[in-house]
Each structure stands twice: as structure tokens, then as C-alpha cells.
Amino acid sequence: MFTIQSMQPTQHQEVAQLIHDSTNGWYLNQLGQELFTGGPQSTMLFCDVYETLDPGCCLIAVADHDQMILGSCFYHPRETHIALGIMNVHPSAFGQGVARQLLQRVIDVADEQQKAIRLVSSAMNLDSFSLYTKAGFVPRQMFQDMVLDVPLQGIGFGDLSGVEIRDAREEDLPAMADLEYRVAHIRREKDYRFFVAANAGMSRQQDRPHWHTSVLYRQGEMQGWMVSIVHAGSQMVGPAIARDESVALSLLQHELNYRAGNRMVFLVPVECQKLVQTAYAWGAKNCELHVAQVRGAFRPYQGVCMPTFMPETG
Ligand SMILES: CC(C)(COP(=O)(O)OP(=O)(O)OC[C@H]1O[C@@H](n2cnc3c(N)ncnc32)[C@H](O)[C@@H]1OP(=O)(O)O)[C@@H](O)C(=O)NCCC(=O)NCCS
Predict the structure, then answer these.
(1) 99 C-alpha to ligand 1 centroid (Å)
(2) How many whole angstroms from 98 Cα to the centroid of ligand 1?
């Protein structure tokens, strides 16, 4: 028996440990290798980022007999939808309905607010895939996760004539939000404000932030933007939104070069052949498959959406 509660600040460390043990346990058992190699301290990133963005929006399942945290689930209410973040159950409690009950609480919130729920789940993890489809989510878009060791000298640039790529600034935020609304039909300006504030932090602190955001303009009109993160708990490019594949490609080259010398993972929509083939030419390999799942209204993308896991998009 367990009770569902909101995570308290004193429980961050235990939840970080749970995320680490649950995810690594599952990956080691099913796929033969751990996902988080930086220890439980690295998965504090999820508590830190998610609680900064959405205080009080982490649900935990606590065992009635010894108060052990059996499961955790982060969610992010946004203007157009609710995004579901990382969901974890302790391996000792798998298959007992912990995740289903945590999910049901988020569904209740979404139904009350009359919003869709969106998430990105691994297509190689039938436990999580099924958890969501059984609860009424519909897989809408497949992504291939590609991993690339970005050479120290970077990767060559294609033709960037006529476009301006630069670090995002606060004044770009409305255009970033409008573009995502046109391409993916969701709005979540708060998330970009967080990423872009990290850009500003870099110039003040004279060192590299975890986050970096680039924007691409053509003839004064925003065509795309892309975020990346480098941290012990996550080395990813994304989220990104682009009007078309060539914009996404220019941004991806730019962002990967910014992260030269790092091993980066990025999620490419499977039908974006130009992106996929160029990534192969750079030496990228497939490492997993993810699927955007939506419970509620969904309109097909009108452009390129490259999601990530923090905060989840898709
Ligand atoms: C994925 C995970 C959260 C599931 O947690 P759980 O508490 O074991 O899941 P539940 O017991 O609530 O089961 C969820 C539902 O999926 C169903 N299900 C599981 N596998 C299924 C399958 N192959 N086909 C159909 N349904 C399936 C279960 O029957 C259950 O539905 P029910 O309650 O109506 O019977 C857990 O395995 C986990 O933490 N894994 C490691 C981390 C991870 O992968 N997180 C998700 C990605 S962010």
C-alpha cells in the first residue's frame, strides 16, 4: 500500500537516487548498459531543473509501512498542454500499479484544466510505452536518437549565406514561442526563458553554462531555435523547432560545434531523411528510439520538432 503526495524539498536527494536506481536498473537489465553514469548526484539535475520551473509539480508514491519513496513523476502545466517529465518506479515495486496511479493523478489535473498531456517515451521500453498507451495516449511521431562524438575541431559548415545564427536573447522569446506554436501547436514560453537566462549567465560568469540556445533568422524572420545541455546527467541537443529541415540542419551543425569535444545525443524525426543521412555522414549512430505520445487533441507538426527530456516536449 502507498500514498501519493507532492515531493518536498527534503526529499530531492531520495528522488534523485530513485531516478538513478530505477532507470539504470531497467536499462542494465533490458539493454545491457546503464544510462546515468555520473552517479545519483547527476540525477539531482532533474529535481533542480524541474522544481525551479514548476515548484510542487512532482508527485511521489510513498510506502505506508516504511515511508520509502516507491515512485516519482514530474509534470509541467503549460499554456496549451501538460508535459509529463521523467517517471520512475523503484525496481522492487515494478508491476504493482505505482506508475499507473501516479499517471492517473496527472490525468486528473489535465482533465480538470481540459488540456492534452504530451510526453516522449522510449519505443524500446515496452513497460513505459504500454503504461501510456493503456492510459489512452496515442503515439504520434517517431524519433531516432542519434549519438555523436563531436570532434574537437568541430564539423564542417554547410552554406549559411543569407541566415543569421546567434545566441538567443530575451527579446527573441516571443518569436520562439510563436514559432513553436506554428510548428508544433504548443506554447511554453516559460521553458525558453529558463534556457535563455542560462545564456545570459554565461557572459556574467565567464564559464560555460549547462544550457545554450541558438536562434536562426532569415531576412529578419525567425526560422528556428535550438537548445543544448552538457551536464553529468544529460548531454543532449534539443529541444529545437525549425520551419524546415535545412534550418534544423544549420542549427544542429551550429549547436554541435558549440559542444565540440563532447558526446551529444539528439532526437531526429524519422522522416527527416536529410537530417538523418547528414548525421550518419558525420559519424552519428542510432542509440535508441523514442515516440511522442499525446493524450488528447493533437495536430501534425508543420515543420521540424526535435524534443528532449528536460523539460519534455514532443
Ligand atoms: C515504466 C515504469 C515507470 C512502469 O512502472 P510500474 O509501476 O511497474 O507500472 P504499473 O505497474 O503501474 O503498470 C503500468 C500498466 O502498464 C501495463 N503493461 C506493462 N507492460 C505491458 C505490456 N507489455 N502490454 C500491455 N500492458 C502492459 C500494466 O499491465 C499496467 O496496466 P494495468 O495496471 O492496467 O494492468 C517502470 O518500469 C520504471 O520505472 N522503469 C524504469 C524507468 C523508466 O523506464 N521510466 C519511464 C521512462 S521516463
Answers:
(1) 6
(2) 8
The residue that leads in pLDDT, 237 or 37, is 237
Which cell numbers in the block locate residue 289?
A: 528510439
DSSP-assigned states of every residue in 256-291: HHHTTTSEEEEEEETT-HHHHHHHHHHT-EEEEEEE
- What is the pLDDT of the chain when averaged over all its residues? 92
Can you count the helices (H) and strands (E) in the chain? 9, 13
pLDDT digit string, tens, across residues 245-275:
999 999 999 999 999 999 999 999 999 999 9
Predicted TM-score (pTM) of this structure: 0.93
Q: Pick the residue with more confidence: 305 or 309?
A: 305
CATH superfamily of 145-306: Gcn5-related N-acetyltransferase (GNAT) (3.40.630.30)
Question: May I ask the CATH architecture of the domain 2-114?
Answer: 3-Layer(aba) Sandwich (3.40)
Q: Is 125 in the pocket of ligand 1 (CB under 6 A)?
A: yes
Q: 127 CB less than 6 Å from ligand 1? A: yes
